[in-house]
């Protein structure tokens, strides 16, 4: 909704922009009134003949001239701004609409915005509307989906993903319809989270059918004391009878115990019969113990009653899923641990005094590493370098168990053998199979045997936590396993492409130049400070993280062509080597235009205008004075002399002003030169002013000469006066000394003012 209100505002802003500067033959920033900022683009110039590309188009427009609507917007005939199409994301084929704002609809959908179902259709979804009365078909993988579907979308079990719920989420494996979570988490003894189903294990059941005897099953009281178990040759089953109320259990033989990892996620099932009625199950009817953990489960959900005298199959899933009913709730890892060393499997036999329980066909689904029916619930792990084995259960050569008592659950750590030798994974004892290391194996880690003193160990000249060995020539001691990025015999400096100071315990880190250096170049960053030394793509900065002066863009963009591009600004009108992050130029005072190439004329004309006005005023006074002098007007020579002094001063001032005007004119001249070729009419204005000022100056010099002559004249007159002793002498300055000059001067000055006022 908010956008609807914003649009007219954007449009208003666009209409408030000053009218596009006289669009002379498309040579300027022409943005159809939707922007006044352009950037110059040579490519665009070549393609279209006008290189000005508009920036920041308003009114939802885009394009080099803001000439078209943005995607998902349309323009009503005769309107300037673009309005949003607002096509319904589900009902329409795309976000674009026609010039009346009408969207293209999916099947069964109608309305300008495709937001309604056609008659006879219903339930708008991403697939459009469906025909009324037709159920939406969900094509879901039954193994991975919950069986529900929502608007054509399959609802997956918790560890499953994919459009049809057809694959396991990351870190899970074995999509199985019988698994309430869909897939099992990778186990790998905690050393890896990546696995797939193994292909070299086959299904195999561990069973007791009691065909020949009790098969090693025993009776045990809840307290742990033994109880009698009997075998029936006639029924070929096992049974236990109670005389007291203390529960007695069937206790499984060894083949059901030990490492039963391969049964994880599979079932334990058995056939059980009780000869008494009305007995309720307890929470502890089936008991699993192992690895210090114990879980129990009831035969039946609470509230149900065990059937009297009827054989029934009971099945229990061996995993931590809540639906598996084990309590307490273990996590995945704990359940795996429990199965990894199963020490007890008990099945309840008796429920109360004089009850007898019968057991048959016990089955623990498992797998074995032989060809046969595949057992996809067995995992095959992708192990890190320290581990080996299908389940990452072993240490790789050169590694040993950190805590041997944890068995395969223990992490593996390097052996600590001299010369990087291998060791016994559980004890860490170094193998002495290698002839060369045979005798030196006894130097403790962090020390080495000097070949010249073979009977003692010397401390490695390496950083903490590092071992060492003697190099091939027997001369050099080489530190083993330099930390990543470190180099040198003693790992004392950072390798090329890294920085830091390992000697001062600052670990080596990769150069951080934001991808703005040649990947294979040498010396990309300072090995100590990390300062990037070879920034490319016009980037600069300590981490090549900004654009070079005179360039703009995003130095961190992944595509080099999106990184830093040259600012395209007028070298005179724009701030040097600078532009904004979108490439727009920063103009110096008095300049404007997309590249700051146009000078704002009022400011520079103003200077001229002030000067010329001063001239005019002074010239008027001079004119008056001269005409009085010419007229002789009965003035005494002293007065005349005084007036001539004033006139002379005035002329000098004018000349000074003319000089400074000429100086400012020189800067004008520079600007004029820059505007050449832009067809600006202000150029001819300035040319005219320049010529005028030039003539003003020339005339000024002429006046100066004439004033000199006048002064000499006056001087002579004063001498004459002195000589003749006459009291008064009329001095007449010949009009020919001012050959129409003053009038012409005035005319020119007026002309200059007229131009300046334009
Ligand atoms: C193992 O037992 C299960 C159920 O108890 C049965 O479905 C399966 O076929 C048996 N597999 C083998 C290989 O005997
Ligand atoms: C299994 O558990 C038993 C009893 O706690 C223990 O003695 C045995 O070492 C364990 N085996 C393994 C492989 O952890
Ligand atoms: C145990 O399994 C065998 C073979 O599948 C079957 O014949 C027998 O009836 C089963 N026993 C019970 C008590 O269900
Ligand atoms: C099964 O295959 C994996 C790799 O494919 C192998 O590491 C493992 O030793 C094999 N296991 C058996 C029991 O053959």
Keywords:
disordered N terminus, six-stranded antiparallel β-sheet, Tie2 ligand-binding domain fold, Jelly Rolls, secreted, 758 residues, Laminin, alpha+beta, disulfide bond, 6 domains
The geometry reads as elongated
Broad structural category:
alpha+beta
Name the CATH class of the largest domain. Mainly Beta
| CATH H-level homologous superfamily name of the largest domain | Galactose-binding domain-like
User: What is the strand content?
Assistant: 15-25%
Low-confidence stretches: 1-26, 433-441, 601-605, 675-681, 724-746
* Total number of helices: 7
* Main sheet overview: 6 strands, antiparallel
Relative helix content: 10-25%
| Average pLDDT | 77
> Any idea what the radius of gyration is?
50 Å
Q: Give the count of structural domains.
A: 6
End-to-end Cα distance, whole Å, is 50 Å
Number of strands: 50
CATH architecture classification of the largest domain = Sandwich
CATH fold-level name of the largest domain:
Jelly Rolls
GO biological process, one term: cell adhesion
Main location: secreted
Signal peptide: 1-22
Pfam families: EGF_laminin (PF00053), Laminin_B (PF00052)
């Amino acid at each position: 909704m908010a956008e609807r209100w914003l649009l007219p505002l954007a449009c208003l802003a666009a209409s408030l922009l000053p009218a596009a500067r006289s669009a002379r033959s498309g040579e300027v920033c022409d943005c159809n009134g939707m922007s006044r900022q352009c950037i110059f683009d040579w490519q665009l110039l070549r393609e279209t003949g006008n290189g000005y590309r508009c920036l920041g188009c308003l009114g939802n427009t885009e394009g080099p001239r803001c000439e078209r609507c943005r995607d998902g917007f349309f323009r009503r005939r005769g309107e300037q701004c673009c309005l949003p199409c607002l096509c319904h994301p589900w009902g329409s084929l795309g976000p674009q609409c026609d010039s009346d704002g009408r969207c293209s609809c999916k099947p069964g959908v109608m309305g300008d915005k495709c937001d309604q179902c056609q008659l006879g259709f219903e339930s708008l979804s991403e697939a459009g509307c469906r025909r009324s009365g037709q159920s939406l078909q969900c094509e879901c993988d039954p193994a991975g989906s919950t069986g529900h579907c929502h608007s054509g979308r399959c609802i997956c079990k918790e560890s499953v993903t994919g459009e049809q719920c057809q694959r396991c989420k990351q870190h899970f494996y074995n999509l199985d319809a019988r698994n309430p979570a869909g897939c099992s988490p990778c186990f790998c003894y905690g050393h890896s989270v990546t696995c797939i189903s193994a292909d070299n294990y086959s299904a195999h059941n561990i069973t007791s059918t009691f065909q020949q005897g009790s098969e090693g099953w025993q009776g045990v009281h809840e307290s742990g004391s033994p109880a009698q178990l009997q075998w029936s040759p006639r029924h070929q089953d096992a049974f236990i009878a109670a005389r007291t109320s203390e529960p007695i259990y069937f206790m499984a033989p060894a083949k059901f115990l030990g490492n039963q990892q391969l049964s994880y996620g599979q079932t334990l099932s058995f056939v059980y019969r009780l000869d008494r009625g009305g007995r309720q199950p307890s929470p502890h009817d089936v008991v699993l113990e192992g690895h210090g953990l114990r879980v129990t489960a009831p035969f039946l959900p609470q509230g149900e009653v065990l059937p009297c005298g009827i054989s029934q199959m009971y099945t229990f899933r061996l995993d931590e899923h809540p639906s598996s009913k084990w309590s307490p709730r273990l996590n995945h890892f704990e359940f795996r641990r429990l199965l990894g060393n199963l020490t007890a499997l008990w099945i309840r036999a008796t429920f109360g005094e004089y009850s007898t329980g019968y057991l048959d066909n016990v089955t623990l689904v498992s797998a074995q590493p032989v060809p046969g029916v595949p057992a996809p619930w067995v995992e095959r792990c992708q192990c890190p370098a320290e581990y080996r084995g299908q389940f990452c259960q072993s240490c790789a050569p050169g590694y040993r168990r950190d805590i041997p008592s944890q068995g395969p659950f223990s992490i593996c750590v390097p052996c600590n053998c001299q010369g990087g030798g291998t060791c016994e994974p559980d004890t860490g004892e170094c193998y002495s199979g290698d002839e060369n290391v045979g005798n030196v194996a006894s130097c403790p880690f962090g020390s080495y045997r000097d070949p010249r003193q073979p009977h003692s160990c010397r401390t490695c000249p390496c950083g903490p936590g590092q071992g060492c060995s003697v190099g091939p020539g027997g001369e050099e001691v080489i530190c083993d396993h330099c930390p990543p990025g470190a180099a040198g015999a003693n790992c004392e400096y950072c390798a090329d492409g890294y920085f830091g100071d390992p000697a001062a315990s600052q670990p080596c880190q990769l150069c951080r130049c934001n991808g703005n250096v040649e990947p294979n170049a040498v010396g990309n960053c300072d090995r100590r400070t990390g300062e990037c030394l070879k920034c490319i793509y016009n980037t600069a900065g300590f981490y090549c993280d900004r654009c070079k002066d005179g360039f703009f863009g995003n130095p961190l963009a992944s595509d080099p062509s999106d990184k830093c591009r040259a600012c395209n600004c007028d070298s005179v009108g724009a701030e040097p080597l600078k532009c904004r992050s979108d490439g727009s130029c920063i103009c110096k005072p008095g300049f404007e235009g997309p590249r700051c190439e146009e000078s704002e004329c009022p400011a520079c004309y103003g200077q001229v205008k002030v000067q010329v006005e001063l001239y005019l005023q002074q010239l008027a006074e001079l004119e008056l004075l001269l005409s009085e002098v010419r007229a002789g007007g009965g003035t005494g020579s002293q007065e005349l002399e005084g007036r001539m002094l004033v006139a002379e001063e005035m002329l000098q001032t004018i000349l000074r002003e003319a000089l400074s005007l000429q100086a400012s004119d020189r800067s004008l001249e520079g600007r004029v030169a820059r505007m050449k070729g832009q067809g600006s009419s202000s150029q001819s204005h300035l040319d005219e002013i320049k010529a005028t000022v030039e003539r003003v100056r020339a005339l000024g010099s002429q006046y100066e000469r004439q004033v000199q002559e006048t002064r000499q004249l006056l001087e002579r007159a004063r001498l004459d006066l002195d000589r003749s002793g006459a009291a008064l002498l009329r001095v007449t300055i010949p009009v020919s000394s001012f050959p129409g000059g003053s009038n012409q001067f005035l005319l020119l000055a007026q002309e200059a003012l007229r131009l300046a006022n334009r």
